Queue: 3 jobs
Job 1
Amino acid sequence: MEAFWLSLSLIFLAELGDKTQLVALLLATRYTAGVVLAGIFVATLAVHALSVALGGATGHLLPQGWIYFFSGLAFIGFGWWTLRGDSLEEQDYRPSRFKSPFIIVFVTFFLAELGDKTMLGTVTLAAGRELLPVWLGSTLGMVLSDALAIVVGRILGKQLPERPVKIGAALIFVAFGLFYVFTGALALWGSYN
């Protein structure tokens, strides 16, 4: 039971102010809170299952440098997609491969969590502890933290101007992307020298 409460509290705190909490807030301005929460919950279950498996097995199956590097590239892509992407107006709607809001939330959140500090934190927590309590505790801690962002997104969503939010989100994605690309590159550089 100690592993559950430790995982819940540490991941809840780690997620506060994290980029994926911003993703939850932004998704909540576009989709219903229930769909966003369900997508986040299922994506978190999947990512944290992977995290716990990695931590339980060895904790070193994927070099951290590569995780950071590819996560950084993905976030730069998310930034570009955010600037170029969807408009909230019906006449500007362009069909995409994913039409289900649940699938959009799930995929967005799943990809956003890869290489994130909460994923790496869950890997670390799983090393040397019982895996099921770590998985359940870290998932619940993250979902509770992101539920706060969903509430804020639903309250402020109608009052937030679309263009500044889109530009701000894109800049945040790109900033995190550049940070992770450089962090990953430095880690890889150090491991090969």
Note: Residues 86-96 have pLDDT under 50 and may be disordered.
Job 2
Amino acid sequence: MIASNRMRSLQALLGESRPIIMGILNVTPDSFSDGGKYSSTLTAVDRALAMIAEGADIIDIGGESTRPAGSTYGAGASQVPVEEELLRVLPVIEAIRSQNDKVLISVDTQKSYVANATLPIGADIVNDVSAGTADAEMFATVAKHNAPIILMHGHGPRFQQARIEDCKYDDVVSEVRAYLEERILLARSAGIETILADVGIGFAKGYKDNLKLLKHHGMFASLNVPLVLGVSRKSMIGQAMGGNLPPNERTIGSIAAACYGVLRGAKIIRTHDVKQTREALAVVNAILNS
């Protein structure tokens, strides 16, 4: 999808009154929820097509796990060489695009080289969990391709060395908001027109900090950019549900948090469970627009 089309398609989606569904596709062996399950091109493409059939508006493809360090996941994910990341994501993007030219594809990467290689062959959006801090060329690369970018708080060099338990805030809501505001301004000054923001639930934040960010998610509307929310199967969901539940048993709690997030301004919900999340949010949207 050429740059002008990708911009028009995303803007059209964002202009709809309903929440937007972003299906998660991890083509990695070590992601926290489904590591290895879709690591071959065939299984990844089949999963993407299934999520599209279930109602996904965007497929978010990640070739490098961002599993955080901490008591839940140990040392966290290891960094992947750019060549390996490209081997994982390029054939999947090309195969999906060859079968569907309408769904938007987001590439979940912190590397400008990966963004530069994937945007011309079918990716439409860059989802950078480091908010441009991991690679100084990311903003310029995204601007060159006239692509949208998602900026997340809580990863990249500034955060990834610390265990979740060691990340402390005086006021997590105002500090995360200030960080995102700074990154948005820098991205805009680099020439990026369409910017989205993600508070980064589960990244560099403890359990109570994650709950505070969800409770006060409406405070981030003042950033004046569309808000992406990723709560799907996060460990804090299992904890809130009352125990140390494995990721595949956190679906109901994830949907509850997604519904709350939409009521607090989230526009795009990033989820592993597309069908269930879409159905629940359709009810929320029907009530809101009655």
Note: The CA atoms of residues 218 and 263 lie 8 Å apart.
Job 3
Amino acid sequence: MSLTSSVPVPSRDAGWRTIPNLISLLRLLCVPIFVWLLLGASKPLSAAILLGVLGGTDWVDGWIARKYDQGSAIGQVLDPVADRILLITAAVTLLIDGAVPLWIAALVLFREALISIAVLALAAAGAKRIEVQWVGKAGTLGLMFALPGFLLLTFSTGAIHDFLLVFTWSATIGGLLLSYWAAATYVPLARIALREGRSE
């Protein structure tokens, strides 16, 4: 997850009534449904599928915005907010359910808290917006697929369990490494954005 959205802002702002913004809103509306499926209805398979679909749509809205020139200023805010809420909610919910190890959830939540604080601090200080970095989006995608993988591991067996085990841990390690690498790369970018924002 990055400091800004994957939805670009072109020279022509498409406004708020766009397909990418609708997708982001739908993702937000589906967050409580995911929580209910897992903790309320006790349907881990449905919850895992929904979480995987919601994670995959993180790339869909950006692709549509670039392909059909539907980037907007509100999308730059809405997209990362949806990402962060989804990832934090998923980590906390899976931790309560017992599907994900405590240390993994802690690393995910610590990183998201760190980025959230940084975003607010930079905005308050008048820094310019920092463009998205591919490594941050790749890290988010890895974690979005890793978390439902842990959920599926709780009831899978045989060869499917073995495959999910390798896939889930690969996505987890890769997602965490890329996410923290992205956080480190934003440090010099944040300094530049702060300096440019104050100079303007």
Note: The two ends are 27 Å apart (CA to CA).
